[in-house]
Each structure stands twice: as structure tokens, then as C-alpha cells.
Amino acid sequence: MPALSAYLNVWNTCLIILQKKGFRTWTDEGENYFFAERNGWDFMADDPIQLLGLVAIYEHTNPPKHDEYWWRIEEPWLVESLPKKPPDYIPKYSRPIQ
């Protein structure tokens, strides 16, 4: 079992991290989307995990201004070339099978 997976019980942790990074966070009235904003840079996602991921892209690229595709990293396309099996490794935490 992975050390961390994308589940509902991770949402609050993501929102806390975003707020500690200085982002204002909110959801729309229908609670279908989650939002974060800091210094005029705003982000929208289906859940707080995705929202934190978008903010990580913003922080990694550190764009000087808002241009079209400011988030794009011009590197090789990896999606289709990812291995279909995990590499050999020893997990840091392994829950005993019951």
C-alpha cells in the first residue's frame, strides 16, 4: 500500500498547506470546485489535492507574468512512455496484510 493516496481524508491537510502558503481558499456555493488565490494568481480544481498540485506547478515555474501556457514545461512528453510496472524499491512503510 502506498505511503499516501488521493482520498477524501487528505483534503483538509491540502487546504491547511495552501493556507499556510498564504493562499486564500474557498469553494463555490454548489461545492463542485475548490479555489485558491494569492497575489492575484488564482486556481480552480475539482478537489483540494488537485488544487495543491496546481499551486505546486505555479511555485515550480515561478512565472513573472500571466501569459498563455505560463505553466508549460517544454520537456519530453512522458505520459505515454511511463513504465507500466513500478520499479524495484522497498517501501518506507508497509501495512501488514490481515
Class based on secondary structure composition and strand pairing: alpha+beta
Number of domains: 1
Largest sheet: 3 strands, antiparallel
Main sheet: strand order: 1-2-3
Shape: globular
Approximately how much beta-strand content do the residues carry?
5-15%
Detailed description of the structure:
The chain is an alpha+beta fold and 98 residues long. It has one domain. The protein has a three-stranded antiparallel beta sheet, covered by helices on one side. 11% of the residues are buried.
Task: Map the helices and strands.
Layout: H1 11-20, E1 24-27, E2 34-38, E3 41-45, H2 48-61
Antiparallel strand pairs: 1-2, 2-3
Helix pairs in contact: 1-2
What attributes characterize this protein structure?
98 residues, alpha+beta, 24% helix
State the gist of this model.
The chain has two helices and three strands. The protein has 98 residues and is α+β, with helices and mostly antiparallel strands. The protein has a three-stranded antiparallel beta sheet, covered by helices on one side.
